[in-house]
Every structure is written in C-alpha cells, then in structure tokens.
C-alpha cells in the first residue's frame, strides 16, 4: 500500500513537470512594430540627421540676451504666447539707472533754464535801474556844473570871495560827476546789449552736452525692459522673477552654462529643417536646382516632403547637433536648410530631431 502511494505521488510530480515545461516553453508572439524604420526613398539618397527650427532668412531661432545686468523684476510673457514687435517680454531692476537718468534730466533742465535766461536779457527791471542810474548821474553832473559856475562867477567878480581851494574842489567835483555819467552810460549800454554771445554759446554747449548725457542714460534705461524684436512666438523662458541675469544670459543650474533669457520663433505657419550632411557625403549632394528631400518623424510612419531653401556654405563641427562640448572624433557637417508647411496634425516643434533623406 505504501509503495503504491509513493508511485502515485511520483507519477503526479512527473506529469506536473511535463505540463510546466510545455507551458513555459511556449514563446509569446512577437507584436508587429509600432512604426517602420525610415527607408531611403531615393536611389542614391543621402541620410542625415535634422533639427527643426523656425523659418527665417538667416539663423535658426531668435535668442534674446539682455544688454544690462540685474535681477528680474517681472516676466510678462509665457511660453507658447504670440507677441508683436515691441511688446514687453520682461523687466530688469532699473532703480539705479532710473535715478541717474532723472538726475541728468534735472541738470539738463537747469542748463536750459539758464540758457533761456541769458537769451532773454536785458531784463526790463534791470534796464530800468540802469536808466535811473544814468539820469541820476546826469543830475549830479548838472548840480556840479552849476556849483562850479557859481564859484567861478563869484571869483571873477571878487577873487577874495572864493578861495582857490573851494574853486578847485568845485572843478574836481564837476570832473568826477562827468566821469560817473560816462560810467553809468556805458553800464546802460552793456545792460541794454544783453548777454555776451560767448556766454550764450558756452551755455548752449553745456545744455547740449547734458541733453546728450540724459539721452544716453534714457536709452540705457530703456534696455532694462526686454522687448520683442519682431512678431513671433515665445518658445522658451529661461529665467524667473528674482533671478540675476547678465549680458551672458541666465545661468542654468542643470547644464551649468548660460542660456538666452528668451528664445523666440517667427510665426510658425512654416518651419525649417536644418539637415546636417556629413562632410564625407557632401560630394554626393545634387545640384541646388535638383535637390529633393523628405523628412521622417521619429517614432511614427509620417514623412513630409521638404522644399530646398539654401545651403549654409560652411562646414561646422557636429557640436551643433550633439551639443557635446568635447568630442574625441572631430565630425564635421554641412548644414542644408529645407522648408515645409507646419500642419497642425504634424504636432512638430523647433528643436525636434528628425531623419532626413536628400536626393534628386
């Protein structure tokens, strides 16, 4: 009886082992690929990696850097927002520069006020004082002449009636009065002539210099507000309120490098693809008038025909594509730019990597 039980258990274990081996030996069916790898559509097509960018006659995207340093006080736009030329994008603390500009404006205003004062001379009240001084001097001369005439007439009648000392004093008084009249007449002419032309010219130059200093200061003050250089779309905002920025840009704690404060693109009805052709394949490029190309979007079966725009005639390092600062192999590429219509269904964005085949 005991041997029968052992035999049954052994048989059951063997059957379980065979069933398990059969079950686990079955391989799952391989699912079909989600997309087919990009195939060369041209008999002698050239493959290259490409990068989508905004459509521009020069360059790729619009990188905005500040011309002045300081902490950010306001960020006035959001990523993806459409802006027009001249719209304020963000502001930098301008308190010191604003105070400097206001001081220079006050100095220029003071110089202008003094210039207007010089040009407005003679002042009517000052001229009236000079006229009164001349009249007073004439009256004093008339009085001195009368006193001298009386002294001389008396001396002619009786020399003993007037001493020579008194007669000399009268004659001196008459000369002094005549001289005072000439001084006041000259002073009147000087007052009537107004400010000296050289004083006016000197003040004009001072006003001009201070005005230009204020204009330069005001122009620098305007640079604390970063404005859109053209109509477009905000792609990235690399800074926030309180962050310190400089003409080098904004420090990125992830890459430990400096990035532009804002990256913009032109209106995105069309986009460009910058295809990087390896330098060893450059000689296989067709003539510009015969170039055709197709773009394959990675991870999909979508391919888009491209329109040739231009060749950037400069072989550049691959760093533009790989973003690697140090490479052991110096791979150089020729950028070729193509254009395509940005259909909404494509869902493409600047900075995206794609596969490009170039042929004829």
Strand-helix topology:
Blueprint: H1 2-25, E1 46-54, E2 62-64, E3 70-75, E4 82-83, E5 88-92, H2 95-120, H3 124-157, H4 164-193, H5 197-222, E6 225-227, E7 232-237, E8 244-246, E9 249-252, E10 257-259, E11 262-265, E12 270-278, E13 292-296, E14 303-311, E15 316-317, H6 319-322, E16 332-341, E17 353-359
Antiparallel strand pairs: 1-12, 1-17, 2-11, 3-5, 3-8, 4-7, 5-6, 7-11, 8-9, 9-10, 12-16, 13-14, 13-17, 14-16, 15-16
Describe the overall structure.
The chain has 360 residues and is an alpha+beta fold. The protein folds into four domains: 46-55 and 268-359, Efflux pump adaptor protein, beta barrel domain (Elongation Factor Tu (Ef-tu), domain 3, Beta Barrel), CATH 2.40.30.170; 62-92 and 224-265, RNA polymerase II/Efflux pump adaptor protein, barrel-sandwich hybrid domain (OB fold (Dihydrolipoamide Acetyltransferase, E2P)); 99-118 and 200-221; 122-194, Methane Monooxygenase Hydroxylase, Chain G, domain 1, CATH 1.20.58. It is built from six helices and 17 strands. The chain has a six-stranded antiparallel barrel. Strands 6-5-3-8-9-10 form a six-stranded antiparallel beta sheet, with no helix packed on it. The longest helix is centred in the middle third of the chain and has 34 residues, at 124-157. It starts with a helix and ends with a strand.
């Amino acid at each position: 009886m005991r041997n029968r039980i052992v035999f049954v258990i052994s048989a059951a274990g063997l059957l379980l082992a065979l069933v398990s081996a059969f079950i686990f030996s079955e391989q799952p069916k391989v699912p079909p690929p989600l997309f087919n790898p990009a195939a060369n559509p041209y008999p002698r097509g050239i493959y290259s990696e490409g990068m989508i960018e905004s459509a521009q006659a020069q360059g790729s995207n619009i990188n905005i850097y500040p011309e002045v340093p300081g902490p950010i006080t306001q960020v006035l736009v959001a990523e993806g927002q459409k802006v027009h030329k001249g719209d304020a994008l963000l502001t930098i603390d301008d308190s010191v520069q604003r105070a400097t500009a206001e001081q220079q404006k006050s100095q220029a205003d003071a110089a202008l006020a003094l210039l207007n004062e010089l040009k407005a001379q003679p002042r009517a009240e000052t001229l009236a004082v000079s006229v009164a001084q001349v009249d007073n001097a004439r009256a004093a001369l008339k009085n001195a002449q009368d006193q001298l005439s009386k002294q001389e007439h008396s001396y002619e009648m009786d020399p003993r009636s007037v001493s020579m000392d008194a007669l000399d004093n009268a004659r001196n008084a008459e000369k002094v009065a005549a001289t005072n009249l000439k001084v006041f007449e000259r002073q009147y002419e000087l007052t009537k002539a107004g400010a000296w032309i050289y004083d006016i010219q000197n003040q004009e130059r001072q006003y001009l210099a201070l005005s230009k200093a204020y204009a330069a200061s005001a122009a620098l003050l305007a640079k604390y507000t970063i404005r859109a250089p053209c109509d477009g779309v905000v792609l990235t905002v690399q800074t926030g309120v309180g962050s310190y920025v400089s003409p080098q840009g904004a420090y990125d704690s992830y890459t430990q490098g400096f990035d532009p404060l804002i990256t913009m693109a032109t209106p995105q009805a069309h986009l460009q693809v910058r295809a990087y052709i390896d330098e060893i394949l450059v000689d296989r490029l067709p003539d510009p008038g015969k170039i055709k190309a197709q773009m394959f979007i990675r991870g999909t079966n979508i391919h888009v025909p491209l329109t040739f725009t231009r060749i950037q005639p400069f072989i550049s390092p691959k760093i533009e594509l790989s973003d690697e600062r140090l490479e052991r192999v110096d791979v150089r590429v020729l950028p070729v730019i193509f254009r395509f219509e940005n259909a909404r269904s494509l869902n493409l964005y600047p900075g995206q990597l794609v596969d490009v085949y170039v042929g004829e």
